[in-house]
């Protein structure tokens, strides 16, 4: 099921050109048009779903295989020594296109991209409370 106004669905229908690199019946991978670094690729389900939580469970294997295959190829093609696989879910998380997608970003030592800042919990009790709160939602 495709969405008529979705940018990625337009790519899937061939209405917008893309530099495609991998395809299965359920998954497509193509280059991001505004890469963080050259070789930055996107892996998307062919089904139009907005985020992680709507992904059809039966394409999980295809998605993981695609991320492995594309990630390895991007790493080798770019000479990268590492790869980030990132999925943004929701506008506050930086999701710009509301069709679920994974970024595959080639990385190298000293490439200038900084890791996300982290800060420790105030104490072990605060971390334990957070874990308990999350567990109640599972
Ligand atoms: Zn779509």
Global structural class: alpha+beta
Number of strands: 5
Strand content: 15-25%
The quaternary structure here is single chain
- CATH topology call: HIT family, subunit A
Number of helices: 3
CATH architecture: 2-Layer Sandwich
| CATH C-level category | Alpha Beta
Hetero groups bound? zinc ion
- Rg is 17 Å
Report on this structure.
By secondary structure, the protein is of the alpha+beta class. It has a 5-stranded antiparallel β-sheet, with helices on one face. The model has no long low-confidence stretch (mean pLDDT 96). It has a single domain, classed as HIT-like (HIT family, subunit A), CATH 3.30.428. Strand 1 (20-23) and strand 2 form a beta hairpin. The chain has 3 helices and 5 strands. It is globular and about 55 Å long.
Annotation keywords:
138 residues, five-stranded antiparallel beta sheet, alpha+beta, single chain, 3 helices, HIT family, subunit A, binds zinc ion
Draw up the topology in text.
Layout (H helix, E strand, L loop, with lengths): L6 H6 L7 E4 L3 E5 L9 E5 L14 H19 L3 E5 L15 E6 L16 H12 L3
Antiparallel strand pairs: 1-2, 2-3, 3-5, 4-5
This protein binds zinc ion.
Kindly summarize this structure in a few lines.
With 138 residues, the protein is of the alpha+beta class. 27% of the residues lie in helices and 18% in strands. The protein has one domain: HIT family, subunit A.
């Amino acid at each position: 099921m495709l969405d008529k106004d979705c940018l990625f669905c337009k790519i899937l229908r061939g209405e917008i050109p893309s530099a495609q690199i991998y395809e299965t019946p359920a998954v497509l991978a193509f280059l991001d048009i505004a890469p963080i670094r050259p070789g930055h690729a996107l892996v998307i389900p062919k089904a139009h779903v907005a985020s992680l939580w709507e992904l059809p469970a039966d394409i999980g294997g295809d998605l993981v295989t695609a991320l492995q295959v594309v990630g390895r190829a991007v790493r080798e093609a770019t000479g990268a020594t590492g790869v980030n696989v990132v999925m943004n879910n929701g506008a506050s998380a930086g999701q710009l296109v509301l069709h679920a997608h994974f970024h595959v970003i080639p990385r190298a030592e000293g490439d200038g991209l900084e890791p996300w800042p982290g800060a420790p919990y105030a104490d072990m009790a605060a971390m334990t409370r957070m874990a308990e709160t999350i567990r109640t939602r599972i």
